[in-house]
Design the sequence.
C-alpha cells in the first residue's frame, strides 16, 4: 500500500515539474506580437502603391503588417504624425520641413515619386500669362513646398512674391476659392486641379517646368527605425512590388485603388508623376549638387524654410536621410 502511495506521489511531483518546465520554456522563447506599422498618407497618386501592397498581400508576403491610414486632409495627417499618432508618413519634402519644426526625431527612408506636372497653379480664365498675376491674390499653403513652387514660377518671369498677394490656403480648397472669386490663382495638385478646371479655371503652370523640385518621401520616427528595421526593409520591398504591379496591371490597379479609397477611377492616374523606382532611389539617396539628389533638394527646402521663418535652424541633412534601406533592398540583403 505504501509503495503504491509513494509511486503516486512521485508521479504527481514529476508531472508538476514537467509542466512547470514547459511553461518556463514558453515564457522565455515566445516573442511579443509586433503591432502593425501605422503609416499615414493623403490623396496623391504617387502614394497609391500603399493600397496595392495592402490589397494584393505584398506586405504580408514580405513579413510585415501595415495599417494604412488615409485622409484627404493633408495638414491633418502631418499634424497627427508630428503629434506621435503614426509610425510613418508619406509626405512632400516640404512637408518634412514642417514636421521637423515640431518633431526633429525623424528620418527619410524612401522616395515614392516625383511630381512631373501633377502640381499646378490654376487661374481664372482671363489670366493669360505669369506676368498677368501681378497684383493678383494667389492662394497657396505658406511655409510648405507649394510656396517654394510658386516662388520658382514667379522667378521664371522676373517676378517676386512682392508682386502678388499670397493667401494662406490649403490645396484642397483652391478650386472653391477660385470659383468664388476670393482668389484669382492658386497652387494645388491632381485631382483637385481637375475640380478647378471643371469649375471654370485653367492651368497656368505645372511642376513639369520645375523638374526634381517636388519629390515625395516616406518618413519614419527614429525609434521605429531603431527598434523595427526588419519591418521597414520589408515595407520597402513590398512598396516596389506594388509599383511593379501597377505598371503591369494599370486597369486592375485603377479599379482596386478607386474602390478602396472610394474615389472616381479617372482620378487614379500616374500621368504627370514619375514613380521613383529602386534605381531612381539609389540615385536620389546619393549625395549630389542637383535636384536628382535628395541631399541637395532637402538643403534647398531647409534653406527656404529658414528664410521664411518655418525653421529656426538647419537640420542635419546627413542624419535626416537614411539610405541603408534602399541599399539593402538593392543588394538583396
Sequence:
Amino acid at each position: 500500500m505504501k509503495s503504491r502511495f509513494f509511486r503516486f506521489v512521485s508521479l504527481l511531483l514529476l508531472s508538476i515539474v514537467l509542466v512547470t518546465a514547459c511553461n518556463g520554456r514558453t515564457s522565455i522563447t515566445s516573442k511579443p506580437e509586433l503591432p502593425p506599422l501605422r503609416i499615414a498618407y493623403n490623396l496623391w497618386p504617387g502614394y497609391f502603391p500603399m493600397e496595392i501592397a495592402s490589397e494584393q498581400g505584398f506586405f504580408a508576403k514580405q513579413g510585415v503588417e501595415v495599417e494604412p491610414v488615409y485622409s484627404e486632409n493633408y495638414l491633418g495627417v502631418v499634424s497627427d504624425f508630428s503629434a506621435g499618432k503614426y509610425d510613418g508618413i508619406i509626405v512632400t519634402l516640404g512637408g518634412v520641413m514642417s514636421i521637423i519644426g515640431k518633431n526633429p526625431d525623424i528620418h527619410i527612408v524612401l522616395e515614392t515619386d516625383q511630381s512631373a506636372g501633377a502640381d499646378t497653379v490654376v487661374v481664372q480664365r482671363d489670366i493669360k500669362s505669369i506676368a498677368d498675376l501681378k497684383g493678383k491674390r494667389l492662394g497657396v499653403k505658406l511655409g510648405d513646398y507649394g510656396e517654394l513652387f510658386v516662388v520658382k514660377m514667379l522667378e521664371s518671369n522676373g517676378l517676386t512674391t512682392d508682386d502678388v498677394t499670397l493667401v494662406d490656403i490649403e490645396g484642397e480648397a483652391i478650386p472653391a476659392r477660385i470659383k468664388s472669386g476670393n482668389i484669382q490663382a492658386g497652387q494645388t495638385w491632381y485631382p483637385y486641379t481637375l475640380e478647378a478646371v471643371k469649375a471654370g479655371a485653367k492651368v497656368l503652370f505645372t511642376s513639369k517646368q520645375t523638374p526634381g523640385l517636388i519629390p515625395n518621401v516616406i518618413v519614419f520616427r527614429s525609434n521605429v527605425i531603431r527598434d523595427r528595421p526588419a519591418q521597414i526593409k520589408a515595407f520597402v520591398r513590398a512598396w516596389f512590388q506594388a509599383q511593379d504591379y501597377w505598371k503591369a496591371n494599370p486597369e486592375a490597379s485603377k479599379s482596386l485603388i478607386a474602390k478602396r479609397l472610394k474615389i472616381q477611377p479617372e482620378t487614379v492616374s500616374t500621368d504627370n508623376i514619375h514613380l521613383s523606382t529602386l534605381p531612381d532611389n539609389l540615385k536620389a539617396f546619393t549625395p549630389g549638387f542637383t535636384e536628382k539628389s535628395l541631399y541637395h533638394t532637402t538643403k534647398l527646402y531647409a534653406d527656404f524654410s529658414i528664410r521664411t521663418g518655418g525653421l529656426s535652424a538647419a537640420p542635419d541633412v546627413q542624419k535626416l536621410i537614411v539610405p541603408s534601406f534602399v541599399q539593402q533592398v538593392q543588394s538583396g540583403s
